[in-house]
Amino acid sequence: MGIFGFFSKEKKETLDKGLAKTKQGVFSKLTRAIAGKSKIDDDVLDNLEEVFITSDVGVDTTLKILDRIQKRVARDKYVGLGELNSLLCEEITDMLAENDTDTDTDFVVPKDKRPYVIMVVGVNGVGKTTTIGKLAYQFKKAGNKVVLGAADTFRAAAVEQLDIWGERVGVPVVKQKMGADPASVAFDTVTSAKAHDADVVIIDTAGRLHNKKGLMDELTKIKNVMKRVVPDAPHEILLVLDGSTGQNAFEQARQFVAATEVNELAITKLDGTAKGGVVIGISDQFKIPVKYIGLGEGMEDLQIFRKDEFVKSLFGK
Hints:
Helix 7 links the parallel strand 2 and strand 3 (about 175). The chain is elongated. It is of the alpha/beta class and about 325 residues long. The chain has helices spanning about 10-20, 20-35, 40-55, 60-75, 80-95, 130-140, 155-170, 180-195, 210-225, 245-260, 280-285, 305-315, and strands at about 115-120, 145-150, 175, 200-205, 235-240, 265-270, 290-295, 300-305.
């Protein structure tokens, strides 16, 4: 584990604060689910099903959780709210461990993959460019030299926003004129990064999904031109999803996974919603790691997703 890999008190406080609305909603629903009950029976399980589905965990993941709880209750005879919280923590964490998504270090770049190239995708409005800015800040804070590429050339606002983040963080932004070929911007970015011995390259891409073939062709072209400079680029294709949209985030994930080779997920805007359960569902349902979660507006409010700490924050006392 790198020097930034521990889960500090400050990170825990940020996580707890960011998930406060979801936790409040879940706890109020859990309290109603077991009201008047002395043990976890079929009625409580039915109520728990409603709790998870209305918390945007998703039907398939909810059924998996209930099956695990039912088996544990039959074996261990758990009763009461205190035991239920502990049971939920254990079973949901174990379930997520089957698709292990934890990262050992915070924003540390593999020594054999420099520059480390991240291509960021997602629809407009999910917090994509903001996430790129926060990633740049965190990677720079961890001691890395970062370069950003403004390959969303279809919206002037996207380039301007990335420019603003570059100035805030103190990292260079490679850009071209409005309407330029996104692949050309990506090529220039990785070329510049390699020439200046940068550690991390983060490429912004157009935020649209009205035509899967068009999107796939564009992203494939971007990937191919970057490989001319960095043969194994991109190392990450990071899909950014808005956690506050609940089940819409699931649908966006399905569409982007079908359109391109997404291998990492970031789920944003969890601090302003009671739908944080979507992280559990997406982490379980897609065989793609949730790597980052956004918990607020500040540059520090982007965290590596750690399933055990996340579940404890939601269901712990």
